[in-house]
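Q: For a teaching session next week I want to show students how multiple molecules come together into a single three-dimensional assembly. I've collected the sequence lines for a complex. Could you give me the predicted structure tokens for the whole thing so I can convert them for display?
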Amino acid sequence: MNTPGMARLRAMRFAKDAMDRDWSDPGLDLDAVAAHAGYSRYHFVRAFKATYGESPGQYLSRRRIERAEELLRSANLSVTEICMAVGFTSLGTFSARFKKQTGTSPSAYRRQHGRRAAAMIPGCYAMLFTGGFKEPPPASGSPLGKRPEGTSGGAPLPDGEERNNGEALRQRR
Amino acid sequence: MIKSLAITTVWSTDQERDKRFFIETLGFTERTDMDMGEMRWVTVSPPGQPDVQLTLMRPDGPGLDPESREAMTALVNKGALGAGVFSTDDCHATYAELKAKGVEFLQEPQERPYGIEALFRDPSGNWYSLTQQRESEELDMSKPWSGSVDDAGDDS
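A: Of course. Below is the structure for the complete assembly, covering every listed component.
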């Protein structure tokens, strides 16, 4: 079943894998990620979102917050150090994203979870739990296989969503 | 009484390509390759473990309805499926060897409580763990256990 739709899914996987692998690389901007897929930047953002349910920038940001959670649980680093270690340059942005994703501030998260949940789960599964398979919005129907290939998935999100990129995916102007 | 795991499934979008990957790149042994008309039955084994076979199974083969075939193939291509954990006695060396052969890694070797672990994909998109278990086979909880600390520190 080597249809164009499947080739597109493979290309999106290469891009997502690059973010999973190189999330701490400051040079990993939108152009670099799109190049892994062999797509132009414009088409890439749409295709990625149709495949994985969020923009590449949102995905990378989520991946970095998840890394920050692990560091807060286990590492003897300050919140500012962790903010830098996972690729954010602004503590304010980091704290806001962290709170949005986890529902709590970085320091409160550490108080709740610190030293308790060391990396007991094999990394591959941890990676999968927080992987790029975010549930689509409820309105867009069955979660599996309902999205037509090559077309946009569900209702278009407001423009602001696409610009809400992770820090390493700052768009080059 | 069940004695052991004998065969497990790896979903393969191209059996010929993936058979070459397992044999030529990973060094596995071919166990079976039979043309059965509508399907091809291919199994391989890790070199040190002849009693466990991986069967390379098409996600769009017979036995599934068209909708399931498409959904299954999409899952494989999107990279949603993992197929197992391979053990190695030297994760860093195996990582270097396989990476030089072009294997797509998702994660460099990292220290974990249970050992050293890297992650890679096969050409179809299934992910695997490559784990070097601790010699004591006990969890080592003495360290903070976050492989990303050192990596990130080097970058900053």
